[in-house]
Amino acid sequence: MASKLHQLQSKACQATQFACKHGSSYYKQLLEQNKQYIQEPATVEKCSLLSKQLLYTRLASIPGRYESFWKELDYVKNLWKNRQELKVEDAGIAALFGLECFAWFCAGEIVGRGFTFTGYYV
Asked: Which Pfam families is this protein grouped with (predicted)?
């Protein structure tokens, strides 16, 4: 157990050194590649304006997303009504989607407990 801890500490130290060595060049490169998104001058007023624009743009998109949700729900209802005509591929996709949702639920439960496995006897 102590050797594993030492290996983990060593890897963390290497990662920190790499980040210190290459972090500023990566930061400069990232800003250079995305300079078209940077607002000049960077003032508090400009940041406030942009945050309000984002908020109200998101609020304005709610009706479209609401309509899309109901279209998707109608599609699923139609599939359920005609489930005798359902292809194996469609059923497989639905099963994989359900399995993915369950896996994300389990992962969320584990994260919510602080990455502890309780109730399992190993």
From this structure: ATP-synt_G
